[in-house]
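Suppose you are handed only two things: the residues of a chain and a line of SMILES describing pyridoxal-5'-phosphate. What would the bound structure be? This form records exactly that question and the answer produced for it, so the two can be stored side by side and reused later without any lookup.

QUESTION INPUTS
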Amino acid sequence: MRPAQALIDLAALRHNYQLAQRLGGGRALAVIKANAYGHGAVVCAEALPEADGFAVACIEEALELRAAGIRQPILLLEGFFAADELALIDQHQLWCVVHSAWQVQAIERAQLQRPLTVWLKLDSGMHRVGVAVDELQPLYQRLLASGQVAKVVLMSHFARADELECPRTLEQQKAFLNASAGLKAEISLANSPAILGWPQVHNDWVRAGIMLYGASPFAGQHAQAEQLKPVMSLSSQIIAVRELPAGEPLGYAGRFITARPTRVGVVAMGYADGYPRHAPDGTPVAVDGQRTRLIGRVSMDMLTVDLTDLPKAGLGSAVELWGQQVLASEVAAQAQSIPYQLFCNVRRVPLRYQH
Ligand SMILES: *Cc1c(COP(=O)(O)O)cnc(C)c1O
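ANSWER OUTPUT
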């Protein structure tokens, strides 16, 4: 079998969740949208029996978790896209973000068996979704008065919490506090960068995404982020070795030209597996536990690495594309991407789980 795989360390996932809960100081939603950022949503949810709840993007993702027997609260981060989803939301007791006035109207008119739990989302400055500052109080009162809602949590989302010197996060918090003044509701503002870097915005609920998977949301070093443990190890093996003289082009477009006699290792991993095609020469790769570099353009099923300074490495050597020795954030930075996208793009390789 092809040796490429993504090994998922569920003990590391639990460690990272517990860190989010501890730093947040209240309850923590584990954000497992997009198949748990590529890590496998059902297995990740099953590995977190202590989670206060989960968050997904949409009802399809929530129903997959319910079908697998997940009983904790599940929040739909984009709410419902059409009013007819409310029947399933009711039936499966899902929690639901409300970000627009039409959704409030749909809830008022719905036939429900039980009152809903709604997370009313304010646009505090990101300007993507969320109700406007002057709509918040009237919509909150309408939800309470509807008789259809058991509880309203107030939430908002930060645009720039990963920039620790940027005033925008505290400006958004201030806009939120002004808009919600006087309302007696639970509050949720913090995503991963805010959990790790902005203790003053933690409140009742935090929403931990990327930090669960052990990647730092920050570009630089950060003391709290140092405590995270990488969850995914994307690995493969050397499947062929080439000895090239100086001056030879390697791979598509001859992007890399050997500057010295070079031992090239060919790795069974390519962009069809989710490894970023834009990774440049020099992107770190670990072979038998030693760091070396990518050379040559990434192909669909293979990529090439420099083994010249690793004389013991050869056919069958273990290659880690990202994990413990090479952080996903290092590869992402080289490829002008972010670890979020690298993880979500992983496909074709089997996901294997370490409990
Ligand atoms: C995806 C998402 C999160 C998680 O963000 P991370 O940066 O991965 O922690 C939190 N809140 C909302 C509304 C989201 O859509």
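WHAT STANDS OUT: The mean pLDDT is 98. Residues 10-217 form a domain with the TIM Barrel fold (CATH 3.20.20.10).
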